Amino acid sequence: MNIAIFCIYTAAALAGILFFSLREFHMLQLNGYKTPEHSWWMKKNYKRYIFPAILLILQFVMLETGATLPVLIGFMAFNLCFSVANKPGKKFKKPLKYTARVKRMMITFWVLEALIIGGSSFIWRSGFCSPWLYILINSGIYLTPLLVPLSNIINKPIEKSVQKWYINDAKRILSEMPSLHKVGITGSYGKTSMKFYLSELLGSQYETLKTPESFNTPMGVTITIRQHLRPTHEYFICEMGARRVHEIRELCEIAHPHDGIITSVGPQHLETFNTIENVVDTKFELADSVQAAGGKIFLNGDNELIRSRAPKYKGAILYGTTEGCDYRAADILVSDKGTEFTLTAPGGESCRFSMKLLGEHSVQNVVGAIAYAHGTGIPLEKLVLPVKRIAAVPHRLQLLDKGGDLTFIDDAYNSNPSGCRAALNVLGLFDACKILVTPGMVELGAKQEELNFEFGQEAAAVCDYIVLVGKHQTEPIYKGIKAAGYDMNKVYAADSLGEALDKARAYQTDKKKIVLLENDLPDNY
Asked: Is the pTM of this model over 0.70?
């Protein structure tokens, strides 16, 4: 009988560990496999670990008071239900991807679990058949949140070796294409949009490859090179992202860009950068690399932090809308149909452009793309049609007309103060009932509460209704809205995006409704 109970109990424990570990692996993957960031995330989300910890303590208490085996088995059944409830079974924005790295971590994780359960089995075989045995087996579930990141730490030397091999192979491929021209793009925000715009313009004359989606990490760039780069490509546009100091330098050592574009510098990822000075230094690692190679660096002259650093780089080309920019846009006309502007090049040549993109802020990136394309030898007049063809990047101020009385401005990938401000300006262009749906901004370090408070004040000046996603997280926005003297009856705090969208649809108005979806936090928030 004891053997049967032991086997059933162990099988239930294994099922519980499996379900609970899938969620933990998913969160670790979303945190970029970086153990420090994952540890910070666990600390921030400590409440999700309180309940299983209480269960473990309660079982020990009941053991000390003479709990019977059936009671402990009942606890195990409850724990199994808890684990099933926490498994990643719902529809996630970015579900767990069973990459080779995840599979290797899972092997290490299950080896660690086997040591725990195997040790418990050894105790049983030694004749120590008591409720303690079952609690030791059960501890595998409670240790899962620790064993998952531990497996990542144990595998670190293996992963470094694997990554080094792939990176060296990517470098080999690039070295065999000496005629390929490589351009790096970085910035606190705007780099993905710039990449898409530049690809459209260069693609009108040259065979061009760009890193897809948000493939802006060392492995993302490596995958792009190894899987997509072909001998026929003439230009390679490489988006470069960073969350820590020197990560742009690491990307430059892989791609060795001939030229570079810095779209912006601002307060983003301050939780890992710590200071805005670190952000500036890291973004300009691209400029340092390009200048050392004798290439051209294109800088957003409208950004004060960039402009202040520009004199350090001889021959830097400024683009934007302000005085002193080498490529400058003026006479800007903005409407809910699109944007027009006149661009003047360094030699005094000018040309009128029109595009479907919404908002004056989008002019900056398009001017930067025109500046670079023009520098490759494409005349301005030959860029007029490609500029007109530029479409909004998915989830970046993308206008989605759902028919009827509802239109969405999908700006889900924006999460910085400048982008939020620009999105509100675009929303203000429409003669409609203006509704904001947002969970606010994250990863802004010590400034997060202050900047979200300001966001609330700015939203109050534009919006007819405001729907906040996440009651606790959006508290600073709520306070900012209230401080602006807004009618708080027109503010609603929802628990989920689905509930927020239902609320936006339910508002009754005589006008057409325009719903701005500003930022959409990943699954680990």
From this structure: yes
Let me know: does 209 contact 183? Beta carbons within 8 Å: no
Strands (E), 311-382: 317-320, 327-335, 338-344, 350-355
| Residue whose tokens read 């606790």 | 472
Tell me if 359 sits within 8 A of 426, measured CB to CB. Answer: yes
Long-range contacts of 297-301 (CB under 8 A, 24+ apart): 297/259, 297/260, 297/261, 297/262, 298/259, 298/260, 298/261, 298/262, 298/368, 298/371, 298/372, 298/375, 299/261, 299/262, 300/187, 300/190, 300/262, 300/263, 300/264, 300/364, 300/368, 301/325, 301/326
Assigned architecture for domain 175-389 = 3-Layer(aba) Sandwich (3.40)
Residue 224: count of CB within 10 angstroms of its CB:
22
The dihedrals phi and psi of 434, each to the nearest 5 degrees, come to -95, 120
Give the CA distances from residue 381 to residues 93, 338, 349, 373, in Å, rounded to whole numbers and listed in that order: 41, 19, 10, 12
Q: What order of strands is seen across the sheet that includes strand 433-438?
A: 398-401, 406-411, 513-518, 433-438, 465-469, 491-494
Listed by start position, the domains of the chain span 2-154, 175-389, 398-518
175-389 and 398-518: identical CATH topology: no
Quick one: DSSP state of residue 94?
A: S
Q: Tell me: the pLDDT tens digits for 29-55? A: 988 888 888 888 888 788 878 877 777
In eight-state DSSP terms, residue 381 is G
Token pair 């424990």 in the structure block, residue? 13
Mind giving me the DSSP string for 217-270? SHHHHHHHHHHH--TT--EEEEE---SSTTHHHHHHHHH--SEEEE----S-SH
Burial label for 273, CB within 10 Å (0-12, 13-18, 19+), is buried
Contacts of 347 (CB under 8 A, 6+ apart): none
* pLDDT score at 304: 93
Question: Which class is 398-518 in CATH?
Answer: alpha beta
Structure-token pair, residue 304: 């004060």
One-character DSSP codes across 431-444: SSEEEEEE----S-
Q: Are 235 and 183 in contact (CB under 8 A)?
A: yes
Dihedral sign of CA atoms 231, 233, 234, 238 in order? negative
HEC string of 443-506 equals CCHHHHHHHHHHHHHHHHCCCCEEEEECCCCCHHHHHHHHHCCCCHHHEEEECCHHHHHHHHHH
Nearest CA to 44 out of 415, 442, 417 is that of 442
Using only the alpha carbons of the chain, give its radius of gyration: 27
Reported as a single tens digit per residue, the pLDDT across 445-472 is 778 899 999 999 999 999 999 999 988 8
Alpha-carbon span 176 to 172, nearest angstrom: 6
Please give the helix or strand (H or E) that residue 210 lies within, else none. Answer: strand 208-210
Confirm if 194 and 263 have CB atoms less than 8 A apart: yes
